């Protein structure tokens, strides 16, 4: 069965960096787009970024462009999110999700909590 | 950016009754719309894509309808396990800026 397991969350200060990872199993990882989606505490869902199966298509939300970088390793079946210059408003649970083309998200991980606070 | 607006914010329905959730887009998204269910402490689960196609394993009591800018998720006979927040999401625009509605909380009376 499809499994997505995020790791790397934690507490950081404003301006610091953090790298999230997502380990995928149960499907052919290299066949799929992958995305990061976040959810601030008690709030709704915000799409952050997605990456195509072979890295040639990447898009970011305006709120993170220039600060966050999405990448993947198809050999290790892993997705990453490098987050730099973190702000308090980046505090959220970050989900990795298998993505159908660039369209919708058919499987989600359990999420990794990122807290940005001084 | 395409804004998605859901109504009502909270819906209280008795078991066995019908629940009707609405989602409106700020412009037409054709039928490029998905619905998700999120239970407390869990990640979202895909229910419906392409406005009306049920995802794998989703019970037949969940149905989606609509096109353009107006969409509806119907739970035909509410079960206790359907208590959750439901989100709609569009995937129409290019370059892709995927946006979600703010959610409708469904409570069991």
Distance between the ends of chain A: 40 Å
Helix count of chain A, per DSSP? 0
- Indicate the proportion of strand residues of chain A: over 45%
Radius of gyration of chain A: 13 Å
Specify the helix fraction band of chain A.
Answer: under 10%
Head-to-tail CA distance between termini of chain B: 36 Å
- Main interface by residue count: A-B, 21 and 22 residues
Supply the number of helical segments of chain B.
0
What is the subunit organization of this protein? Answer: heterodimer
Give the ordered list of helices and strands of chain B. Answer: EEEEEEEEEEE
Give the fraction of residues assigned to helices of chain B. under 10%
Residue ranges of chain A: pLDDT <50 for 5 or more in a row?
A: none
Largest sheet of chain A: 7 strands, mixed
Q: How many runs of DSSP E, i.e. beta strands of chain B?
A: 11
Return the structural class of chain A: mainly beta
Describe the structure.
The complex is a heterodimer of chains A (118) and B (109). Chain A is mostly beta strands. Helices cover 0% and strands 54% of the residues of chain A. Chain A has no helices and eleven strands. Chain A has strands at residues 3-7, 10-12, 18-25, 33-39, 45-51, 58-60, 68-73, 78-83, 92-100, 104-108, 112-116. In chain A, strand 4 and strand 5 (45-51) form a beta hairpin. Chain B is mainly β and 109 residues long. Chain B has strands spanning 4-7, 10-13, 19-25, 33-38, 45-49, 53-54, 62-67, 70-75, 84-90, 99-100, 104-108. Chain B is globular, with a radius of gyration of 13 Å. In chain B, 37% of the residues are buried. The mean pLDDT of chain B is 96. The chains are: A mainly beta (118), B mainly beta (109). Chain A binds chain B through residues 35, 44-47, 50, 59, 61-62, 95, 100, 102-111, and chain B through 32, 34, 36, 42-46, 49, 55, 87, 89, 91, 95-103.
């Amino acid at each position: 069965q499809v499994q997505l397991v995020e790791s790397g969350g934690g507490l950081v200060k404003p301006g610091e960096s953090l790298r999230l990872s997502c380990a995928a199993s149960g499907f052919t990882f290299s066949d799929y787009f992958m995305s990061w989606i976040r959810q601030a505490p008690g709030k709704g869902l915000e799409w952050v970024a997605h990456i195509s199966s072979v890295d040639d298509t990447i898009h970011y939300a305006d709120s993170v462009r220039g600060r966050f970088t999405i990448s993947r390793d198809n050999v290790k079946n892993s997705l990453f999110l490098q987050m730099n210059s973190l702000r308090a408003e980046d505090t959220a649970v970050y989900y990795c999700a298998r993505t159908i083309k660039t369209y919708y998200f058919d499987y989600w991980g359990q999420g990794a909590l990122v807290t940005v606070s001084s | 950016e395409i804004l998605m607006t859901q109504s009502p914010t909270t819906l209280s329905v008795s078991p066995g009754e019908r629940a009707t959730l609405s989602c409106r887009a700020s412009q037409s998204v054709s039928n490029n719309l998905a619905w998700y269910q999120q239970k407390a402490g869990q990640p979202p689960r895909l229910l419906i894509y392409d406005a009306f196609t049920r995802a794998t394993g989703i019970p037949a009591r969940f149905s989606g309808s609509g096109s353009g800018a107006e969409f509806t998720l119907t739970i035909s006979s509410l079960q206790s396990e359907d208590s959750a927040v439901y989100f709609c999401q569009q995937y129409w625009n290019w370059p892709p800026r995927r946006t979600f509605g703010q959610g409708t909380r469904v409570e069991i009376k």
